[in-house]
Amino acid sequence: MRKRMLKLLCTVAGVFLGVATIFANYDGAIWTTLPDGTEVDFNIYDSKEDVYLNGGPGKGSGSNANGLPDGTYVFMVTDPSGATLLSTDIAGCRQVTVVNGAFDNVDAAGACGHALGVAVVGRPVQLMPYDDTPNNGGEYKAWLTPVGSYQCSLAEVSCDVGNFGFINGESKTDNFKVGDEVPDEIDARFHNTYYGGGFLDGLAIRWVDTLGASNTKYSYFEPQHFINHEAHVEAPEIGTHYISITNQPGCSVGDVYLAGTKQRKKGPQTIAVKVTKAMKTKGSFTVFVDVVCR
To answer: What CATH number is attached to the domain comprising 242?
Structure first.
């Protein structure tokens, strides 16, 4: 009981800390990919072996975005709620090195490290081995944290501090699916001058998941993967997600819309997006956050 209570308190504290210090988290982004660095539709993979983790400035970010701080990081895989650790090897085998802001082709874990992809820039690392998710929708959550923020011994698989050694406010996450699943998303779009105006690419949001971990997403256009000028959060788990929008080069924030409804406040803000069990049960869904850039 004490262990469960400690984990609950850490999780609740992490959610509020994540919202309050949403832009205090370190720069850069993570995302899942195939071994060659290419995308799959809606982050839905054919098999667990296909899923690799990559990191850097962020997909669609352009040349002005910052990458991950250089150093060594630990990664893991959980179910989307973060309640079940799925990675099965010790944390010391789940390390990756970041050089010049992007995943490097140096295997930080040595002999027990995971397979590396063949992408030349931002070389991805395979997430396997990890167990099947208990989630009925085939959903998983990938995590990354600096090794200095990791709370367990690298010689262990996990411990009881935070979420298996990961502190939510010091972690980046990205969700993905495996199998024959339907897509569900939270998509942010940036409009030029007015709602319905031309779309703007290369603009950032900060997504905070239901646990208080976060990631940076950028709007971009890749129609072959059904990405239509969106900064997309794929396979969001049940609960409240936060999408934070700031003024940035190319966008002084004006009106903001959630699911087509104009919000009372103009300008930079954080939007709470609730994903319900009914939405997940229904099947495919997309919740749009639309931002007018003045």
So the answer is: 2.60.40.10
CA-based torsion, 54, 59, 63, 69: positive or negative: negative
- Assign 81 to helix, strand or coil: coil
Q: Which of 153, 15, 154 is nearest to 82 (CA)?
A: 15
How far apart are the C-alpha atoms of 78 and 250, rounded to whole Å? 36
Q: What is the tens place of the pLDDT at every residue in 159-169? A: 999 999 999 99
Residues 6 or more apart whose CB falls under 8 angstroms from that of 164 comprise 76, 78, 85, 152, 157, 158
Domain boundary among 129, 160, 178: 178
Token pair of 53, please? 């983790």
Does residue 122 contact residue 54 with C-beta atoms inside 8 Å? yes
Total-model pTM: 0.90
Please give the pLDDT value at position 8.
38
Let me know how long the chain is. 294
